[in-house]
Specification:
Order of helices and strands: HEHEEHHEHEEEHEEEHEHEHHEEH
CATH class of the largest domain: Alpha Beta
Largest sheet: 9 strands, mixed
Radius of gyration: 21 Å
Helix content: 25-40%
CATH topology of the largest domain: Rossmann fold
Number of domains: 2
Shape: globular
CATH architecture of the largest domain: 3-Layer(aba) Sandwich
Strand content: 15-25%
Oligomer: single chain
């Protein structure tokens, strides 16, 4: 029944019964066809980085789990509760260079952004592949290496929001969270099973983890490096993201002990949760004890009124960046950015 409803909805857009809106500026949509955890946000940041020097690019999302409604423009006074954690993270990471807004209605959100700032000449939308009321100039679908869409099933028996055939609507497919060393056979398996059209592009990416950063910079003196910690040290890993396994796996690749606390995706940390983390930290053994969380969780924890002062100096987050695999179907980050630019040139003239 779910699959039939999704099929009929998509056909109504294909047959123009439901109207798609186009705009006079390129609209890059980054999404997926599986629920959560594919790594969209780091790819959005990569695109914004690649495009913001040549375009006045803006970012729009729905602001998942925010406490506000309607269109909200991010400002220096915004909190994750106002605009959602992803929009908050992007606003602060780009230091205000990229206008950031949230709106459930993406069509209205785009119109509001263009009215507020007419100089905007490119838009990047997060998690809007299924929001078909906006016709994208470039549709980027991110799918995870360890959870291949071609081996998955529709909700509720699997994790797919819509049929794997929906990937045919995309212009670019990125297989994310790939292992460091992939064999030619691994590339072929994905390429053959995803089976894209000649006009579509396929890329492979992986996460690279950057040095630790303090969650509360004013409370920290010397920032530790993970490879400084040894067998007598302990790290409490805290994650409330869609798929925390790569984060935990990376921490466990070092010689120190790792204790893990996993919460639901986009988790809002309560007083009880913070007390649990304090209790677990105090119970840990080790010459050095620190808390390490994800970049996305850092957004929520840094604004949490219950976070204890005594833990601020020992709490850090692990930034991540996207790195495109040099031996995949694409040949690195320049090829990915070029594929976006070429698709814009092709589709803006249609």
């Amino acid at each position: 029944m779910y699959g039939a409803a999704v099929y009929v909805r998509n056909k109504m857009f294909d047959w123009s019964i439901l109207k798609q809106h186009t705009f006079g500026v390129p609209v890059i949509v980054v999404g997926n066809i599986a629920v959560g955890g594919t790594g969209k946000t780091p790819h959005v940041e990569f695109i914004l980085n690649a495009m913001c020097n040549s375009h006045h690019v803006a970012f729009l999302s729905r602001g998942y789990k925010r406490r506000t409604k309607g269109f909200v423009m991010a400002t220096s006074k915004s909190t994750p509760r106002d605009i959602g954690d992803e929009a908050y993270q992007i606003y602060h990471k780009f230091g205000g260079r990229v206008p950031v807004a949230v709106c459930e209605d993406r069509v209205n959100g785009i119109r509001e952004l263009l009215n507020i700032d007419p100089a905007i000449n490119m838009l990047v939308l997060d998690d809007a592949f299924q929001h078909r009321y906006v016709k994208p100039t470039v549709a980027v679908v991110v799918t995870e290496y360890n959870r291949p869409v071609f081996e998955d099933k529709l909700l509720p028996f699997g994790r797919l929001r819509e049929s794997v055939r929906a990937i045919n609507r995309s212009d670019i497919v990125v297989v994310s969270k790939c292992p460091t060393h992939m064999k030619p056979l691994d590339y072929r398996i994905f390429s053959n099973n995803i089976n894209l059209f000649p006009c579509q592009s396929l890329f492979f990416s992986r996460y690279t983890y950057r040095p630790l950063r303090p969650l509360f910079p004013d409370t920290v003196g010397r920032i530790p490096y993970l490879d400084w910690l040894g067998e007598d040290d302990t790290v409490l890993a805290v994650a409330g993201i869609g798929n925390p396994r790569p984060f935990v796996r990376y921490l466990k690749s070092f010689s120190f002990r790792v204790k893990v606390n996993v919460f639901a995706d986009h988790h809002n940390y309560t007083r009880k949760d913070i007390e649990l983390l304090r209790k677990r930290y105090n119970e840990m053994r080790g010459n050095n004890k620190i808390i390490v969380t994800t970049e996305k969780d850092a957004v929520r924890l840094s604004c949490n009124p219950y976070f204890p002062h005594e833990l601020k100096s020992v709490t850090f987050y692990l930034p991540i960046e996207v790195e495109f695999m040099p031996n995949g179907a694409g040949s690195g980050p320049d090829s990915f950015a070029d594929a976006i630019r070429q698709t814009i040139r092709r589709n803006m003239h249609v």
